Amino acid sequence: EEKIRSTLYDSPIFKEYFGESSIACADIETTGLSPRKCSVILGGLTVPGDGGTRMAFQYFADRPDEEAELLDRYCGMLGQYDTVITYNGDSFDIPFLKKRLSAVKLRSDVLDHMYSLDLYKILRRHSDLPKLLPDMKQKTVEIFMGGGALRKDTISGADSVKQYFEYVNSSGDRRKWLLDNILQHNRDDIVQLTAITGILHSLDLHEIMYTEGFPIRTAAGSMIVRNMKLGKNCLTAEGEIFGENIQYSYYRDNVQSEASGKRFFLKFDTEDVGGCSVADVRQAGSDVAEISGLG
């Protein structure tokens, strides 16, 4: 547990989408790329602390056979938050965690309710950085943003795997040195990930959320908008509800809303499609969440 100086990006637009969300930044270290053959050895995350600070936590498997305990504790804490920020987490970290949870016979749906904000995917799809940088590694983005000097670790993810296997069979000062290296690498990943969320300031967050979806949270329930489409005279949105299974349909003020089980559908009929705002979708979605909460 460590209090860190890095702060999460914040702005009025960011608050519009995530003001009601509790946000964790997460990164894992594994023994390889295949969740079928490899295991999780370290999970790190930063979470909100007191007075606007962030706290860093790490969960380490001293031996490979401690993976189940690590996953239980790490995912148990991660699952307390409703939004997770990662770097390539949609393709790697999150599916890897879910598959390993199943492999060790733990609940794999413990993270299903979380909205995923994958900075790697966002920068690849919604920025010019792929044209400007030699690669899209997190460390390269950190250097681009002027924060490269803040990183203390000197090893790569591949080096971390090699050093872990050596650590398991080492002792004394060498064992401590290897552990410090492995933990520092993951610690810098999560702290720097928190810091580089600031790059969202230079991007069109409304366009990103329209494309990638966004969460809606209320006291009664929550949902994630997964898909939005603009038609000639309508705007549609659909996604998932987290709460009790519900069945309902209503039409009011040119807004059609339907829900079935864990899925919802919204349709705004209007001649002025441009007049439909995210606030309209959020309000209609909040109505769905309220009804879901009553289920």
Tags for this model:
295 residues, alpha+beta, 6-stranded mixed beta sheet, 6-stranded antiparallel beta sheet, 10 helices, 38% helix, globular
Notes on the structure:
By secondary structure, the protein is of the alpha+beta class. The protein contains 10 helices and 12 strands. The chain has helices at 12-18, 67-78, 93-103, 119-126, 129-132, 138-144, 157-168, 172-196, 205-212, 278-294, and strands spanning 2-4, 23-30, 40-48, 54-60, 83-86, 115-118, 214-217, 222-230, 234-242, 246-252, 255-261, 263-269. It has a 6-stranded mixed beta sheet with strand order 1-4-3-2-5-6. α6 (138-144) crosses α8 and α7 packs antiparallel against α8 (172-196). The protein starts with a strand and ends with a helix. The model has no long low-confidence stretch (mean pLDDT 89).
Strand count, sense and barrel status of the largest sheet are: 6 strands, mixed
- Uncertain parts: none
* Strand-residue proportion: 25-35%
* Protein structure class: alpha+beta
Please give the alpha-carbon distance between the first and last residues: 38 Å
Estimate the helix proportion, in percent: 25-40%
Main sheet: strand order:
1-4-3-2-5-6
How many beta-strand segments?
A: 12
Give the SSE string.
EHEEEHEHEHHHHHHEEEEEEH
Short description:
This protein is an alpha+beta fold. It has helices at 12-18, 67-78, 93-103, 119-126, 129-132, 138-144, 157-168, 172-196, 205-212, 278-294; strands at residues 2-4, 23-30, 40-48, 54-60, 83-86, 115-118, 214-217, 222-230, 234-242, 246-252, 255-261, 263-269.
